[in-house]
Structures are given as structure tokens and as C-alpha cells.
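FAQ: What does the model actually see?

It sees only this:
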Amino acid sequence: MKSAFLLLLASVSLIACKPAAPSNATPGKPKVALVMKSLANEFFQTMAEGAKKHQAAHAADYELIVNGIKNETDLAEQVGLIEQMVSQGVQAIVVAPADSKALITVLKRAKDAGVLVINIDNKLDADTLKQAGLTIPFVGPDNRAGAKAVGEVLAKKLKAGDEVAIIEGVTTAFNGQQRRAGFEDAMNAAGMKIVSTQSGQWEMDKANTVASGILAANPNVKALLCANDNMALGAAAAVQAAGKSGQIQIVGFDNIAALKPLLADGRVLATADQHGDQLAVFGIEAALKILKDKSTPADQQTPVDVVTK
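And it is asked to produce this:
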């Protein structure tokens, strides 16, 4: 699994290293930039494909530039992409920020330059936005509610007092914080004992290492709650390597295609579908409506559903 992950990372790194070449803007047709997190993550590949299909179906309405970074924590690269999009004269940026606070300064510069900014996937920090005097609408799901719903499915497979562990995402990411909180809500309500919470940085390889350590240190753990499916894949490999297949429940979040075989055969119990193929589309449509109607930007909640076998 590790080698497959490295091959995937290598295959997308050339795409992630630089933004798509700018097109010559058609007068009156807005140019929208999609700036995502790691293109090594299948979720963001799916998001990008959904956005491209939407633009192809609405080619007369807008132009699209799609960007992503090489890994989940490369904040400097994401800042650089946003700066490049502003310099290329886009009218709107739809951004899935790698960090809920660190990107606010560059996004303020974008707004000061007259660019509309729409926040998707990972919500920007409200207090930091307020301190910057900035209002940016969030178009995305309730991550806490989604994670709680997944945790409630897991709780039905356990009994009060069982030991569980949480593998969270990047700790400074709001969606990661919310998913951890949702898992905690469900586990605490069901009387489970959370014995460990560690970050897997959203990445399969890192989560595999973290999960292996958790299993070694906590031999009675009955479940691993993973804040995305990439990490659930890494956790499942760790469970198999530890010889505990069928003994430890695993849940994830995102419903990526790579997880489906594990859902089918029971290696993973449940995940949450936040409709990644449509998540950027929701943000793009919100941006186009605001640009067209000159309306006031507002938050918009999008669906999230529990998926099991």
C-alpha cells in the first residue's frame, strides 16, 4: 500500500507543482480559479474532475483554472497559487484551504484586489477572519454532524466501556477539528473510552504509522475512527499487519472510490459522503451567482450522508 501511495503521489506531483496555463478571458465571461489541497488525495482528484465536468457543461458561462498542492501541509505552495491566480486576473477564487488560519492574509490580499473568494471543504477560522476584517462565505457540509453520524453507526457495534482511538487530520484545519469533535460526541454519548487521539495529517502513510503505534500501545482497542478515508486505508493496513483483521472496527470520512472494496468486505464499517464530486461545483455555482446578481455572499450548507456496506 505504501508503494502504491508513493506512485500516486509521483503521478500527480507534476500537475500539483504548477497551475494550469491561463486562458485568454472572453469579455463578459468570468474566470474562476479552484485552489484545492493535495492532489495525491483521491478526494481532491474527484473534486477537480467534478469541477471540470461542470465547466465543460457550462463553457459559455465561465472559464476555469484548476490547481492543487503536492501534500496536505504545503501551505507556502497554496499561498503562492492564490497569488498567481490574482495576478492572472481571475474574478473568483474557490478555495479549499490547507489551514484554517494561515491562508487568511493572502485571501485578504485577493479580496482587496477585487477578487471574490468562496471557501469550501475546510472552513476558515471565524475569529481570524474577524480580526482581519474579512467576510468570506463558506459553502460546505457540517463536518461535526457528519462525523457524529458515522460514529453513531460504529457505537452500535460496540458496548459501553470499549476502548477506541481517533486518528484526526491536520490539527489546525477546522474540518479536522470538527470531525474529531463529532467522533467524540458519538463516543462519549455511547460511553466509550477514547484512549488515544493522534494526527495522521490526512495521509495514508502517516495514518498507517500512527495506527500501528496505537495498536501496539493499546492492545484492547476495539475501533479506529479516522477523519478521512485516506487515513482509514492506512489504518486498515495496520490492522491487517497486526493480525487483528475482524477484531477492530474502522470508520472514515469522504467515501472515496478506493475505500469501497473495504466497505464491501467489512474491513471498514462506515464513512461519510460529502459528495466530493459536487463540493467544488457548489462553490463555483455560488460564486457565479454572486458575480451575476451582485448579491451579498452568504454561507451555504451542503449535504453529507453516512455510507455503509
